[in-house]
Design the sequence.
């Protein structure tokens, strides 16, 4: 085998290795951008977003009025399998609505204001919500469950 042919075959492997060393830290950095606790609209619930494998997931950690919904909602996963799609955007996962019991194809978008916009779609029909980051100085994190 000629030396040039060997170098040509090795180049794609080196490029892939270089891409992985660049992309893996970006993925971890992207996860850190939205990891933490978020208020749902109306401060009805608090959701903790954190890494789950190579994706991001979120679960309910606090409810304003536990009598309004069963205690079983605490710990319920409502964001599942979101992966970084581009800077400030996560997609490829699902969003679960505890009110109607359905899961929707979803995406997350970090807004310039620091809010988090969620969009869930079922076929051609989509809904969105905007969540606000919990201010840990004013409202300490909830206990881990």
Sequence:
């Amino acid at each position: 085998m000629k030396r040039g042919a060997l170098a040509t075959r090795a180049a794609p492997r080196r490029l892939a290795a270089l891409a992985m060393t660049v992309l893996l830290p970006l993925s971890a950095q992207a996860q850190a951008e939205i990891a933490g606790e978020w208020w749902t609209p109306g401060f009805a619930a608090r959701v903790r977003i954190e890494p789950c494998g190579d994706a991001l997931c979120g679960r309910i950690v606090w409810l304003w009025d536990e009598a309004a919904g069963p205690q079983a909602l605490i710990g319920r996963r409502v964001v599942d399998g979101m992966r970084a799609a581009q800077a400030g955007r996560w997609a490829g996962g699902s969003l679960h609505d505890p009110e109607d019991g359905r899961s929707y194809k979803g995406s997350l978008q970090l807004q310039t204001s620091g809010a988090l916009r969620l969009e869930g779609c079922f076929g051609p029909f989509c809904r969105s919500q905007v969540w606000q980051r919990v201010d840990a100085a004013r409202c300490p994190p909830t206990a881990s469950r």
The first helix runs from residue 3 to 34. The first strand starts at residue 36 and ends at 39.
